[in-house]
Amino acid sequence: MTASAARxxxxxxxxxxxxGAPVVVAPTSLLLGLxxxxxxxxxxxxxLAGYSPAIVLGTVAATVLGVGVSVMCHEFAHxxxxxxxxxxxxxxxxxxxxGRTSFGPSSRWRPWKDVLTSLAGPAVNLALxxxxxxxxxxxxxxxxxxxxxxxxxxxxxxGVFNALPGLPLDGGHALAALxxxxxxxxxxxxxxxAVGGLAVVVGIAWRWVLAPLLAGARPDSFSLILAVMVAxxxxxxxxxxxxxGRGTRAAARLDxxxxxxxxxxxxxxxxxxxxxxQLDAGAGLVLVADGARILGTLDGPALAELxxxxxxxxxxxxxxxxxxxxxxxAVTTQMTGQPAADxxxxxxxxxxxxxxxxxxxxxxxxxxxAR
Length: 371
Fold this sequence. Notes:
Radius of gyration: 23 Å
Oligomer: single chain
Strand content: 15-25%
Shape: globular
Number of helices: 12
Helix content: 40-55%
């Protein structure tokens, strides 16, 4: 691990790099952290009756920070297993309620490797739960015990929930990959996991909303907010994968080639000023290549950010020195219909551009709408 000064971007903060992959955190995590801290404070204060407010606040802060570290360990586990199986992680994104690990391309990747990579994260959380549970009796003080107890059960929740067989949870990705491995049909795996996702949403609604109402109780506001925050991305992902709603008809008419912008392919030693000229001439994206190998990309916003950071002479800097790794999810050979829409949606999570490849050559790039 190589530490670096935290670099702030408009949409995330880069904390450091691990194996060349940036580890970024979303600013919205701070808001969620404050929400969780506010909801936990009365419980911790009650458990630590007799302790000063400063100690109670410190215990809450340590617990929230521990949750962030647990999420980080979860994502690093995905990356480590993926790397061991032949697919290098290129970006880690952390949120207080979860994260995302993006991988580079691999020519020999198989669905069963996705099963192992997906389940690695929940497995680490369950391991942390087991270790924490075994060490609780050794806590040196009540505040340490309260923080350790909370983190122990948070890791159990993270492990069990993420292992549920519904998209976009880790268990859902593992189920989709397993079905694909057994049947050879990727679309079938996605649909099976999407049905699992809708089942998870029904379970969330029952546990936190319907069951209390049927018991004559009123669900508390925090439980309702948490249920909506957790269920919404699961429901929307599953709904989209199953092709429900009007969006499916629009996707059937989609042709990415009609939306494509030109791509300029340059060598790694090309001066940065030449890349600027290509972008000014109308290219949407500059693709940096070394023969047949793609090294990375550079677009207008990235170049503008570099220029604002105070670059030295642009004629002395090469594109190979400043280009960004192109994630595998930002490349597609699917040009039309629902597969093209799915490719665009996947690319939106990792890149501002989706690169189109036809007949083994790059034919254009489509803006994904990501910042």
